[in-house]
Design brief:
Largest sheet: 5 strands, mixed
Shape: globular
Distance between the termini: 28 Å
Number of strands: 10
Strand order of the largest sheet: 3-2-1-4-5
Bound molecules: 5'-O-[(R)-(carboxyoxy)(hydroxy)phosphoryl]adenosine, zinc ion
Strand content: 15-25%
CATH architecture of the largest domain: 2-Layer Sandwich
Helix content: 40-55%
CATH superfamily of the largest domain: ATPase, nucleotide binding domain
Amino acid sequence: MIRILAIDTSCDETAVAITEGRRVLSNVIYSQALIHKKWGGVVPSLAKRAHEEKIDFVIEEAVRKLRLKDSGFSLAKIGFVAVTQGPGLAVALEVGIKKAKELSAKYEKKLIAINHLEGHLYSPFVQNRTGKPEREFRFPYLVLVASGGHTNLVVFNDHLSYQMLGETVDDAAGEALDKAAKLLGLGYPGGPVIERLAKQVNNQDFHRFPRPMLKTNQLDFSFSGLKTSFYYYLKQRYSFSTTFIIEKKTDLYQLTSSFQQAVFETLVKKTERAIRETGIKNLCLVGGVSANRYLRTLFRGLAKKYQGDVLFPSYPYLTGDNAAMIGVVGYYKALQGKFIADPQTLDRQPRLLL
Ligand code: KG4
Ligand code: ZN
């Protein structure tokens, strides 16, 4: 079976994997979260530098890990190189693409360009080295991609065949959580911290912050109005202008829980609308925000209501950005002969669509 070396440097994770069909043989993720933490979000110039500094090490680490199981393995034995072309941060994508071209030339392997969103769509189907989870593809799926960079509702029709139903017109769901956390002085990424704090009050809604676009018939999302209203609420109530340090723990719990609820209710309601419009009951929830246990519970409830099923990527190594999912898409593209004719011409596409 052919092995693929996959690289993703689309945002703030330097990720490399070696895959074989749907199976992941080696998966290494170097997260830059600590570098960006104090800025409350990803700083492009810092991301670029960290990718450049770490990429060789992450590749070597992926090879080393596979060698523990298969001592005869070397990069010369891979079949293809797969790399994320976009969407993402231009300066970050460039680092992975440059490295992929270099390896493709050095080892004379064909190059496969992958859309980062396709990677997330395939993430629930990525298997570990023993082939778990065993789930088969039962197309079509209705997929909600919720991450720091994306909020999309997509119909996953068949292999490499998708239809975009809706997307965010401003902030992504994870980005909204990150911005709320930043306002509260909770650091980056905000999603996991907010999840923890909201749990203290059983994820209840105390403030009823607005749910933008919930009343419209479209399947697009918008979170910037929610963010603004949250900001003004904090300004009025706590009067600080930059970082609000909420000293009263209960206030903090109630604020984070209410904000999270506003974001999640929007995600669930729009997904429900899409189920009704398409008749598709099999759901997938993917992307960094799919790590949230409460959101998973809400999606299980939604699937149950429509007698469907819901799939999630394995937590934690496939919810956020990783290269394993890129390698798996690479496999399906290789089956269809979708290679880059002249690898040296491959360029990053920061705004690539599905
Ligand atoms: O997929 P991802 O790693 O990167 C992008 O492609 O953006 O997603 C990162 C996003 C961040 O906004 C982060 O706050 C959010 O995923 N996130 C979570 C959780 N873990 C990460 N959001 C809610 N609950 C979580 N447990
Ligand atoms: Zn992502």
